[in-house]
Amino acid sequence: MRTYIRLIFTTLTLWLAASSSLSAAEPRATLVEAMLADNDARKIELITSLAGEVDESIKPLLIAWREDGLYLYEPSGATPVPVQLTGEKDADDARAAVRVDTGAPLVDAEGKPVHLVAGDLNAVEHTSMLRRAMKGVLDLIDIGSPDAKKRLQAIQTIGFAQETDKIPAFQKRLAIEENSKVRRALREAIAVTQLKDPSDAVKLAAVKELKELHSLSSYDLIRTAMREADAAKSTELATEAKAALVAIDNHKSNINFFGTLFRGLSLGSILLIVAIGLAITFGLMGVINMAHGEMIAIGAYTTYLVENIFGAGITIPFFGFSLAIPGMNTTGAFYQTYFLFALPLSFLTAAVVGIGLERSIIRFLYRRPLESLLATWGVSLLLQQGLKLMFGSNNVQVSSPSYLSGNWTVNDIIFGWNRVFVIGFAGLIVFGVWLILTKTPLGLLIRSVMQNRGMASCMGVRTERVNMLTFGLGSGLAGLAGAFISQIGNVGPSLGQNYIVDCFMTVVVGGVGNLAGTIYSALGIGLVDQSLQQILLNPVLGKILVLVAIILFLQWRPSGLFVTRSRNLDD
Amino acid sequence: MPSLSTRHKIELIAVGVIALFFIVIFPLLNAHGMVSNFTINLWGKYLCYALLAISVDLLWGYTGLLSLGQALFFSLGGYMMGMYLMRMIGELGQYKKPIPDFLVFLGWTDLPKFWVPFSSFPFAAAMILLLPGLLALVFGFLAFRSRVKGVYFSILTQALTYGASLMFFRNDMLMGGNNGFTDFKFILGYDLRDAVTQRGLFIATAVVLLIVYVGLRVLSYTKFGLVQKAIRDGENRVLFSGYATAHFKLFIFLIAALIASIGGALYVPQVGIINPSEMTPDKSLEAVVWCAVGGRATLIGPIIGAIGVNSLKSWASRAAPDYWLVILGGMFVIVVLLLPGGIVSIPARLKALWQRFNKKPAEPEPPKPAAPPQEPNVTPASTPSL
């Protein structure tokens, strides 16, 4: 093994020195030369020189060689030609032959393709040493892949195998690599591999490098190195390794901190999006709408429908009938714009259902909040069952458009696009609601009716209509929330039930009748929930503790964070 | 106690007759094979639900506190009884081990400490009262001290139930997790699958219901009962008259929790299963439906509601399983909008209609369905029909 490594090492060094001349040669020609070379050392040298080659065809050829898939075609007298047999066997068991050196079909003197029988030919030979060299090259071939993701993966896999002989290949790649992520991975891979180096000085440098890189994945390897150094009494190295571990730990807790912050913020944004509609219907109007959750579900199902209409269409078993909606069969980028159409449609659908609900039931219950709670709970059951009958009781899948999937990694902190989007969208919704309430005539009417219904009515405001529109706005916002939730979770008939308790909690904690309070409480609850989960490592317990915390919080501020001051005892 | 009016005498006689029927005649008919075991078991379940509905009514109808957490107390009582019943299975479980099956499944070899005393029925019976009582005291104290009321009280109790159900769904609660407790064999040495035992449980439930009914009826005549109704109709005025309303409410909340808990404890051996889905907010809301449908602020209303709605449910879940929720939801909307007094108020409405019809035969105007406008601080809409 040692000799072999040394051999590879020297050949690699040689090859590095001669790389300019060698790499100029055609990789296929190099391969053929290796096959025909008369001694193993030369063969290994030639094979190794292929490492990091960009040519994609080398990989299958090398694999074929290793597996006895390459043959020597030896027409009498002429130099043998390595060939690969491809295609289907014909009647004589013969297959079409392809020249290894050019990749073109093998032709005879008259230019006709030659068909050969595998049994008549000699396979290209390979010894165990050659196979090892080939494996080394095969391992390294992806490092030169034009696809950065593939490169990154190959570098990480090879780096953490800690094979010292791979270092020169890494270094060569590092010299020409331009992608910053891959550069970082290369440095990490080199340093990790150097941890196996016999010399303490090299190890020390490697540890320092890893410390600088805050390499999370090398944590265990550094710890192993530290133990070894402790055992070998090399104090300096052990201290440095310990320092590196501390640095990585710090980095880790930083990542956790910012990760938690980010997740808390995005959870808070989800809460905000689902609760802001409720903040309007409950907070401003004083109507306890237990069917708010179903408005969210309606929004989510609207998104599902729009997605299907953009796709292949959908058949809905509509209370015994079957309603076939044809699809537009769009694909690609246009298909993915479905979400942009789904957003306003979810808003409209939920708003229309909300207005219907307001006209038929809620308007009779404005002065009886507890009864509005009960009646709307009945409505929520009706809507749930309706959705079940229309879409089935199983969850349906809504595929996220490509611009919402994927993520963005900064300093090892992963920012999922959909979460970033949720945060941004929550901001937009809040801004939109603020605009509507403060800058439009409708907002003025809403505020006046909510503050003093009788007075507004006397001034000629049509309070009935304002109620209807306000309720429609609140429901529509729930529909928007549903469109969003369809992107991050399951869509099912009981979707709303999962959010309704959270929604009410958010609004109550924020202080009823106060939109700003809802924003603060949503973000606060989101952050507390995620922090508790981080500490307890248990999502359910975290949720329960949040509920307990909310109950205790209401001891301190019975009317929530922000109270609308009033002299009325019953407020 | 003031002298009874004719109406109350009629009610008293009616209740006596019904109680006699349930406690004596119904079980006798069962013993002679004229009523099936299935029926008596089913009615036992209804009566347990009636206890739950009465506890909701005591809070909502009489005190104006809509608690959406009564199912929590109901299932806590059930769980306490369930723990005793689990211990009584002994080594007859699937795994033939001295500890309950789900613990074997979770990899336990010994009984967790808090399970040990539940082998004793008196301890379990004490816990049926103590645990829900303690929870009601703590939660009630926190809620009433900070003057949480109206809708906020409902939302908080809903959150409490929600949190508890999340907790009980977890396996490491060591309370059976998702599946809860089932496969009971014996209670107090009697075989639970035996018709005689089931009959005994039915009689016990009917007796408890009668006691609760009479007790609450007496309570409603006392000064305490008057203060209770005064709190419902105008809490601030009661407060300013010098009554510590928080204490009253706390005491009522406690009694309601105990009634619900006893109902749950009687429910579990008759139904044979208890799991966390019994304590979700939905179940509490269902109990509110029974109460509303039957007629709130009456004592007989919740009982009628619980039995009526659950009979309907038994029928509908066989005849039209897909539409049960539609029926329940629709019923609720209709009751709230058109019949705020519930079934119990129908005779009075018919009477009023008849009188109006006789007075003005020229224009027989149908009764206005929506409730009349109320003063905003009066929480329950319907005036109690007592």
Automatic annotation (TrEMBL), chain B:
<dbReference type="Pfam" id="PF02653">
    <property type="entry name" value="BPD_transp_2"/>
</dbReference>
<dbReference type="GO" id="GO:0015658">
    <property type="term" value="F:branched-chain amino acid transmembrane transporter activity"/>
</dbReference>
<keyword id="KW-0472">Membrane</keyword>
<feature type="transmembrane region" description="Helical">
    <location>
        <begin position="324"/>
        <end position="346"/>
    </location>
</feature>
<keyword id="KW-0812">Transmembrane</keyword>
<keyword id="KW-1133">Transmembrane helix</keyword>
<protein>
    <submittedName>
        <fullName>Urea ABC transporter permease subunit UrtC</fullName>
    </submittedName>
</protein>
<dbReference type="InterPro" id="IPR001851">
    <property type="entry name" value="ABC_transp_permease"/>
</dbReference>
<feature type="transmembrane region" description="Helical">
    <location>
        <begin position="151"/>
        <end position="169"/>
    </location>
</feature>
<feature type="transmembrane region" description="Helical">
    <location>
        <begin position="121"/>
        <end position="144"/>
    </location>
</feature>
<dbReference type="InterPro" id="IPR017778">
    <property type="entry name" value="ABC_transptr_urea_perm_UrtC"/>
</dbReference>
<keyword id="KW-1003">Cell membrane</keyword>
<dbReference type="GO" id="GO:0005886">
    <property type="term" value="C:plasma membrane"/>
</dbReference>
<feature type="region of interest" description="Disordered">
    <location>
        <begin position="361"/>
        <end position="386"/>
    </location>
</feature>
<feature type="transmembrane region" description="Helical">
    <location>
        <begin position="287"/>
        <end position="312"/>
    </location>
</feature>
<feature type="compositionally biased region" description="Polar residues">
    <location>
        <begin position="377"/>
        <end position="386"/>
    </location>
</feature>
<feature type="transmembrane region" description="Helical">
    <location>
        <begin position="240"/>
        <end position="267"/>
    </location>
</feature>
<feature type="transmembrane region" description="Helical">
    <location>
        <begin position="200"/>
        <end position="219"/>
    </location>
</feature>
<feature type="transmembrane region" description="Helical">
    <location>
        <begin position="12"/>
        <end position="31"/>
    </location>
</feature>
<feature type="transmembrane region" description="Helical">
    <location>
        <begin position="68"/>
        <end position="86"/>
    </location>
</feature>
<feature type="transmembrane region" description="Helical">
    <location>
        <begin position="43"/>
        <end position="62"/>
    </location>
</feature>
<dbReference type="InterPro" id="IPR043428">
    <property type="entry name" value="LivM-like"/>
</dbReference>
